[in-house]
Design goal:
Helix content of chain A: 25-40%
Number of strands of chain B: 4
Number of helices of chain B: 3
Distance between the termini of chain A: 117 Å
Radius of gyration of chain A: 42 Å
CATH topology of one domain in chain B: Nucleotidyltransferase, domain 5
CATH topology of one domain in chain A: Nucleotidyltransferase, domain 5
Strand order of the largest sheet of chain A: 5-4-6-7
Structural class of chain B: alpha/beta
CATH class of one domain in chain A: Alpha Beta
Distance between the termini of chain B: 78 Å
Largest sheet of chain A: 4 strands, mixed
Shape of chain B: elongated
Shape of chain A: elongated
Oligomer: heterodimer
CATH class of one domain in chain B: Alpha Beta
Order of helices and strands of chain A: HEEHEEEHEHE
Number of helices of chain A: 4
């Protein structure tokens, strides 16, 4: 009891006498004040600035493009010559695909496969046809397939034809000049 | 008797709730950061061949040179062609061939990627292929649109 009376808090506003005369200090109550909207905004302003900057950057620079891939090929050893290109002997029994334009300068094309009259004239169905050819005696996946494209054929058709040959499972594809 | 503080009721102010805005912004930012892919300067914008069931593989080749073959302006039918080596300005195929020769001597394992516009005629791309073969570069890659997975 004596201690209580000596405590500097005794008698002050924040002190009260508990059980057995112990004096506890109770801080003055502070009322919780909800921060104003302006205060909240000012706290988050740098983060919002940065988020907006990143968002605008990515929204303006992102282009939803299809992914670009690569078709790999091995080039023949260059045998020199006056300019027509690599001179490489053709294999003995290849499958020769000829891509020719329907009319000069036209975007349309037709396909012929030497020795196969029933071959499809379009790229659609070419892979299926080549798979059928590979089942025949004397042909397999290693049988060379030679693409002979006319100069005026669109590059798109050549790549589509090349891709169809790869889809058929052929492992040996070459380009040749008609 | 101590003076009691009167509870003062505040007037109902109009406040803006920023939480959903920040949530949406964060979601969009994370989405764009994940889907964004930075293309290199050597990949000039052009229409690449887009074969069905494409077997073109997306791969990174460390030592590579890109030959861009684009349709010249005003000739959308593919009649004219512009060649350029990577991000460099357009030049003749003979000039590109000379540069390839130097590059091949510097690093014999160099690989070449031909990026050709799908509207070009085969003769233009074949000329680029010959330039590559003439410099004894053994591996050639041709760019095409790859099949999207998933």
């Amino acid at each position: 009891m004596e201690i209580a009376s000596q405590t500097p808090f005794a008698g002050s506003r924040g002190a009260y006498e508990g059980e057995e005369g112990t004096v506890h200090f109770r801080p003055p109550r502070r009322r919780y004040e909800q921060p104003s909207a302006l205060m909240t905004l000012s706290r988050f302003a740098p983060m919002i600035d940065l988020s907006f900057l990143l968002l605008i950057f990515f929204m303006t620079t992102t282009r939803f493009a299809k992914p670009e891939g690569l078709l790999t090929s091995e080039m023949p050893k260059y045998a020199g010559g006056s300019g027509s290109g690599p001179a490489v002997p053709l294999p003995e029994s290849p499958i020769i695909l000829r891509l020719t334009p329907v009319a000069t300068g036209a975007d349309d094309y037709t396909i012929r496969v030497d020795g196969f009259a029933q071959a499809p004239a379009r790229i659609e169905g070419l892979a299926e046809f080549l798979r059928g050819v590979q089942q025949r005696p004397g042909f397999d996946r290693k049988t060379p397939v030679i693409i002979m494209a006319h100069d005026e054929i669109r590059w798109d058709h050549v790549v589509k034809c090349w891709n169809a040959v790869l889809v058929a499972g052929s492992e040996n594809v070459a380009f040749a000049t008609p | 008797m101590p003076a009691r503080r009167r509870y003062q009721r505040r007037g109902a102010g109009v406040a803006f709730n920023f939480t959903p805005l920040i949530d949406v912004m964060m979601l969009l930012t994370i989405f764009f950061m994940l889907v964004a892919r930075f293309t290199s300067a050597e990949q000039l914008a052009m229409l690449l061949p887009d074969p069905p069931d494409s077997l073109a593989r997306v791969s990174r080749i460390p030592e590579r040179v890109v030959i861009n073959c684009r349709v010249s302006e005003g000739q959308a039918d593919g009649g004219g062609v512009v060649y350029s080596l990577g991000p460099n300005p357009p030049e003749s195929l003979a000039g590109i061939s000379d540069r390839l020769s130097v590059l091949q001597q510097q690093s014999p394992r160099i690989k070449v990627v031909i990026r050709a516009d799908r509207r070009l005629r085969f003769e233009h791309v074949r000329a680029a292929m010959h330039a590559v073969a003439r410099n004894n570069i053994e591996v050639l890659h041709v760019a095409a649109i790859a099949e999207e997975k998933g």
